[in-house]
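job 3f2a | input accepted
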Amino acid sequence: MQTKTTTIFRADQVGSLLRTETIKNARLQKAAGEITPEQLRAIEDSEIERIVKKQKEVGLQAVTDGEFRRAWWHFDFLENLVGVEGYWAGSGIQFQQQQTRSRAIKVTNKLDFEHHPMLDDYKFLHKIAGDHVAKFTIPSPSMLHFRGEVDSVVYPDEEEFFDDLAKAYKKGIKAFYDAGCRYLQLDDTAWAYLCSEEQKEQLRAKRKDPEYLIKMYLDTLNKAVADRPDDLKVTMHICRGNFRSTWISSGGYEPVAEPLFGHLNIDGFFLEYDNNRSGGFEPLRFVNRSDLNIVLGLITSKHGKLEPREEIIRRIEEASQFVDLSQLSLSPQCGFASTEEGNLLTEEEQWEKLRYVVEIAEDVWK
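job 3f2a | predicted structure (366 res):
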């Protein structure tokens, strides 16, 4: 009988890392037909080995592949689900004063999870992680509905769509587990939108009911993670947008805190708390389980300047008024490159940020 995973990494990371110039150049060469897909993958392998070694050197216990094989944190995974297609849309996703490239996705057939290429991506990470934990990040199932277009002929009943989505993810989670994964993170921006009054008004203008979305996303997530193996750690990162150091949504977690912290059956949350847009720690009062890990994203990934150590420690103490210190951890507020363009800081500043997380965590949780 397996025991429930209780490992808490006091110093953790969201997952994506700045793409190296070697990776960027190789992608351009591949697009120009100058190198083969196999040559690109060999270059990615080498660069991933380098950044995994670097993560170990800065003191992280859980290592990622930096999402080095992806252009996007979500689309690359979602469009490789059975029944989903990617395409170039007329416009991108609008951030504060910036817009992404025009990638989009649509559901054109019944959903399933079969022969997903990221299983091989995980297996490579698992092989080189050594005695460290190989952490893999994928978009939350909510993101397919939130960012995708669903063909009403394929799914005239939206509840059938959500049911198939949950089944596909459940199958995918088992596939990653069978490949050796014991630490899986679901990344999600939809819940942050549901914290924002401005974004909820925009949803209503599109005839989308925020309360309905809260219910359906919660149900779908719980179905997807149900009956997972006891030694598989599943967490969620709630993101307010991360593209070239810009953002989309604002608002504290209060509107979604009770359903998320009280009723979502996962092992932990990565929460952005690096600025005033994130609100206070009061919503953490809805954490009603002693085994739920709350990872405080108090250190920003959007610029290279290090926050005052005393301020970070003070805020951890403040959060511990709502959740016991034993359930808390520290990380950057987001990844460093949710898209291949990356945030506006240097690679060395990125490593300094992660080293800083480790140093502060070692000081707080002695």
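job 3f2a | The chain is about 40% helix and 15% strand.
job 3f2a | closed
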